[in-house]
Amino acid sequence: MRNKIASLLLGLGLAGGAFLATTGSAQGHGYTDSPVSRQQLCGNGTVRGCGQIQWEPPSVEGPKGFPARGPADGHICSGGIGRFSELDDPRGGNWPAATLVAGESHTFVWRITARHATTDFRYYITRDGYDPTKPLTRADLDPQPFLTVPFGGRLPGSTVSHSGTLPQKSGRHLILGVWTVADTGNAFYACSDVRF
């Protein structure tokens, strides 16, 4: 009888652990809502066939230190997280793209579901000649962010908005938003497909 009870409790413990692993025991953290990110497009059902990211759009958390460190080339949009690899798939260059106007001010918006002390928010954009049919690499991006918003270790609210001037670009591009956490070794990554 004791063995049966022990087996039952062990089974329940394993089932509970499996449930937490599949539902994301990390409660999510944040993603860009403007311009709309790939994970947001998956989370709101605009894009189908997204795998697990559709249930965890705020969870694209990878090593910080981009571009010197961080996710490997080809795995930047997923933050290097294998279960979110659908975000790295360029889908033949057919991700829905937000329309932006080059040289104008844009308000960038992050939705934050778990607040972290923050170093900064940085925005990178693809170089002229970027091929949207291939996975994103560092070589595809201008080497310096076009906008950096220092946060000085403060906690963000549930929504973070800041404005910046968009670079002079034309055609299809990708904006990489990086939210760098101050008190862990990680950052959050969000890829937004855009058209100027």
TrEMBL record:
GO MF assignments: monooxygenase activity
UniProt superkingdom: Bacteria
CDD domains associated with the record: LPMO_AA10 (cd21177)
Keywords per UniProt: Monooxygenase, Oxidoreductase, Signal
Position of the signal peptide: 1-20
SUPFAM superfamilies for the chain: E set domains
Chitin-binding type-4 domain segment(s): 29-194
Protein name, UniProt field: Lytic polysaccharide monooxygenase
